[in-house]
Amino acid sequence: MSSDASPRTQIEALLSLISSSTQAAMSEYEKTGHGIPTPNSSKSHPLDNEAGALALRRAIRTLEAACERLCTTLAQPMHTLHNRAMPYEAPCLKVVVEEGIADILESTASNNAKGMHIDDIATKTKNKVDPEKLNQMMLLLSTRGCFQEVSKDVYANNRMSLQLLSSNPMSSTVALYSGEILQGASMLPEALVHPEYASSRAVNRSSFSYLIRNEMENASYFDWVQSNPHSIKRFQLAMKGLSSSVGSSDAVVQVYPWKELLKSSLASGKHSLTFCDVGSGPGAIALQLSKSHNKKFKVVLQDLPEPLEHAKTIWSVEHPGGDVQFVPVDFLKESPVPGQDVYFLGYIIHDWPDSDAVTILKNIASVMNSSSRLLLHDYVLQHLYRDQSSTESNVEMAPEPLLPNYGSGNVRAYNHSITMLALFNSRERTRDDFVALGRQSGLILVKIWPLSETCLVEFRLASPRLAAL
């Protein structure tokens, strides 16, 4: 669409995108045989917890982008700005997660009751929250679709609030983002003008470090988490919920050509493909690949000793026959095991400022061979002007009249960048940022593989042969 298209033509194009993406989303639900869900259903739809629903995710990305673009075009700017300056859902979500509201309502549903009065809900909360104050929060959250009000001051769960049950890792994700992450982000205005924090990129000079400076002097977010056992457990669960929310593990397994890579490796005379997950945590993606390809994937998980112990427990239960080794490493100080076919870093580089990121990448590059590849699983940000070189680099560009980066359909990536700033003094990066990191680390960016929300950024060792490709 031409940039000088009339406003009416652009509006009609947005309406067309809304219609087509809605039809695509409905089709994905109907394919399951369970029909199209309703917001106030008391049961989850099979796709509600299906991390690999890539087609649905892409349809929703376009739908959200087009709806938001349409609303901000037609609404008065003061209306939109007023709404965006009121981010009160997050602290309200923190309250309902910590007080176990969804669990309380679910126990009522099991008794065939149609909801629970706010007075009874408040009585059952962990801290006996004031019912009038709780009701104010529940009204807001129900207005935003997080619960349903079935009669005056009587609430029940719905598809969305079922994700807030304590048994669902997503509840930990919500608690993490609405808790310390939000608190750290709220300190950005103060940290940005403090002489010790304003221009620093050190991990212990983030706005979160500013928040806890009287509690733990010169501490990073990682230091704080390690000193809080409850936070460690919740962080691990939150990362599981985050992975499910963005569909990251399934997307990595489905989109990258693992079968072709494995076939090539076997054709060269090897008995398996070697896969080293650096900073692995439980090694969720390695686990899926090992299950899918049985003994053809030889996995090495590398992390600090404590998360590796957690990983051992998970693998012993979920894939006891997997070909896996657990090798401790401090990736800021040491190199991983040498000569692997694939080195994988999942949501690692975005945690670190450029200087530390280069150190991590150099440590990996030093043990790679000419056929090794390094895959970074991260968000890849885009700027908001249209540049054809972006499409040539496999970075997806939204159709006009949407913003090139899908706008609100992809806003979580840009919110994550502020999360990285608040917690670590780091950021999510653009393609050019990854190219620069690779150049400083002896690596060359080969390709960006778009997933449902995130990307795989593929590197090889820099060489004249690869640079010519």
UniProtKB/TrEMBL annotation:
N-terminal signal peptide: none
Keywords: Methyltransferase, S-adenosyl-L-methionine, Transferase
Record has Methyltransferase as a keyword: yes
Biological process per Gene Ontology, one example term: methylation
Domain annotation O-methyltransferase C-terminal: ranges: 274-437
Transmembrane annotation, as ranges: none
Transmembrane recorded as keyword: no
UniProt xrefs under InterPro entries: COMT-like, COMT_C, SAM-dependent_MTases_sf, WH-like_DNA-bd_sf, WH_DNA-bd_sf
Single annotated GO MF: O-methyltransferase activity
Protein name: O-methyltransferase C-terminal domain-containing protein
